[in-house]
Amino acid sequence: MAYKKTLTMGVLILLAVLAVAIAVPIATNNDNDNSLAPQVNQFFGRTVLDEVPLIDGHNDLPWNLYNYERNQINKFELNADLKAHPVWGPATNSHTDIPRLQAGKVGAQFWVAYVGCNNQYKDAVERTLEQIDVIKRMVRKYPQYMRYVTSTEGIMEAFREGKIGSLIAVEGGHSMDSRLAVLRMFYELGVRYMTLTHSCNTPWADASPIDDQPDATLRNVTGWGQNVLWEMNRLGMLIDVSHVSHGVMVEVLEHTKAPVIFSHSSSYSVFNHHRNVRDDVLKQLVQNNGIIMVNFYPGFVGGRSIDNVIEHLNYIKSVTGPNHIGLGGDFDGVTEVPNDLDDVSKYPDLFDMLAEGVYKNGTTFAPWTREELRKLAGENLLRVFRDVEGVRDSMVDVEPYEDLIPYQDFVDAGVAEQPCMSDLDIHKQ
């Protein structure tokens, strides 16, 4: 019996020694193998989109509603996969539907009421009204997903309800037909920013293509055009200086009483294009406390990779700091989009890459912090919008600007003839 007990004890001791011998190298290997270690509190950039609303500055879906549906949307279904639609699916300028907006965690969107420059001096006002109408009807059709808003508080209320705060923008000063009364009516109808020009000059402001015309006569912002700025300040309408010439950017920043926005523009230093913004203007923008919302269009960012967009974001942040930058994808308004950033569902991927600090090509950059990403997503735009609302409130006793545009502005713009003396004499009589 004593022999059996001794043998049993020996076996147990041997087993214990073997267990320790096996366990030690395993533990050592685990200590050195970081791939097996649990990732604790790893930060994914997309998580900020659950904390603050992602506010995109420019989406041309309403323009496609006109192009493909003639604004007849009663039987058109936006809450569907439009990639499978027989008309919208093959279209290279279709990047938006409700499922993709939800996948992209879009918290608020400026929907653009755009009409072409070919409507200038003709039916631009009427056509713009039709686009404002279709935006309102679109939002009203999907109350479970969208909420029509006109203020910063409205954006936050929609975000708290889990809905897309939907705002109206007018792209191009030609839409107001050089009439301040029309500008005021746009505001009454819910328009909260107006781009001063599109690709065509107005009688009171130059568009960006003029910067590539060395022999052109620059007018920048005319004296009457300054009334447009101040009336927008008085109303509480954001001034958008995307699409305008360099001279207009500079003069607007000198004369405005409120911060301005670039709703969909990128950096000229990164890619030389007249639609992009030069460093001197970016520095003025900081003094103005405004914001530039970066465009994704390959023709403006200089390539078809998400890396190109990130390069613009990083460069602009290096000039302005993190407080003056946002996103304005220009989806549904362009026929080319970057790889990996090809529709409205891809914003979370962009934020993940910014937080990780690695380009698709494998090179690295300084990762964006959570605070910087919150500002990029929406906090910067909300600050600018609140400041514009504050200027509006401070001008409550200012009478509307009502000066009529001088006939000479049309002459100088090349769209009217200089009246002869006999015509002036008849007018006087």
Automatic annotation (TrEMBL):
PROSITE patterns: RENAL_DIPEPTIDASE_1, RENAL_DIPEPTIDASE_2. Its cofactor is Zn(2+). GO terms for molecular function: metal ion binding; metallodipeptidase activity. Keywords: Dipeptidase, Disulfide bond, Glycoprotein, GPI-anchor, Hydrolase, Lipoprotein, Membrane, Metal-binding, Metalloprotease, Protease, Signal, Zinc. Residues 1-23 form the signal peptide. The keyword Disulfide bond applies. It catalyses: an L-aminoacyl-L-amino acid + H2O = 2 an L-alpha-amino acid. Its EC number is 3.4.13.19. It is found in: Membrane. Homodimer; disulfide-linked. This is Dipeptidase. It comes from Anopheles melas.
